[in-house]
Amino acid sequence: QQLNSSASKLENMNSNSFADDIADVQTWVSAALTNPSTCLDGLGGANKNIVPVVNAKTEKSTEFMSNALAVINKLSDVSGM
User: Fold this and answer.
1) Cβ atoms of residues 28 and 6 within 8 Å
2) Domain assignments of the chain as residue spans, ordered by start
């Protein structure tokens, strides 16, 4: 959900609200980035065999979100936010 909101915000961004829009996107992507870790933490007491499986399944999406957040942060820095 956070990533969909972020993509929609980026598609509809305008110069009048750029700072607010970028701040929203940073917040949502950061929140999405914490979801896999929170999920793994929640599995701590579960079957220990499932944790590596879930970790492997979320590794690429976590890397993607981290890279996306780095680009968004750079946009914010470059624009003086």
Assistant:
1) yes
2) 2-78
